[in-house]
Amino acid sequence: MKSKPKIGVSACLLGENVRYNRGHTQDKWLIRELGQYVDFYPFCPEVEMGLGVPREEIHLYYKDEDKEQLYLRSKFSRVELTDKAQETYQKMNGKMDKENLDGVVLMKKSPSCGLGNVKTVSEDENGSVKLLQGLYATNLEKNYPHLPKVDSGRFKNPTLREHFIKQVFAHWRFSQLDNKISALQDFHKRYKYTLMEHDQDALRELGRICANHENRSPEEVFSDYKDKFFNAMSTLASVNNRVNTLYHIMGYVKNNLASDEKKHIIDLIEEFKEGIHTYMVPLRLLRFFIEKYKVDYLENHYYFTPYPKELKLHKDL
Ligand code: SF4
Question: What residue owns the CA closest to ligand 1's atom 5?
Answer without folding.
Answer: 19
